[in-house]
Amino acid sequence: MKKIILLLVGIVAIGALGWYTKKLISGEGSSDTQLIDFAIKDTNSVDKIIVSDAFSRKIELVRKGKLWQAADGSCISQEGVHLMLDAMAKITLKGYLSDKAQKKFTELMSTSNTKVEIYQNGEWSKSWYIGPASQDHLGQIMLLESAEYGKSAFPVLMSLSGTYGIIDPRFYADPRKWMCTKIFAYDMEEIRSVEVKFPKESYRNFKVVNGGARFQVTQNGKKLSNLDTANVYRYLQGFKKVHFELANYELSQRQVDSVKRSTAFCELRLKEKRGKSQLLRLFRIKSDGPQQNEMGEIVDIDMNKFWCQLPSGDLVKCQYFVFNPLIMGYVFFPAMEEKFPENAIR
Question: Rounded to two decimals, what is the model's pTM?
Answer without folding.
Answer: 0.76
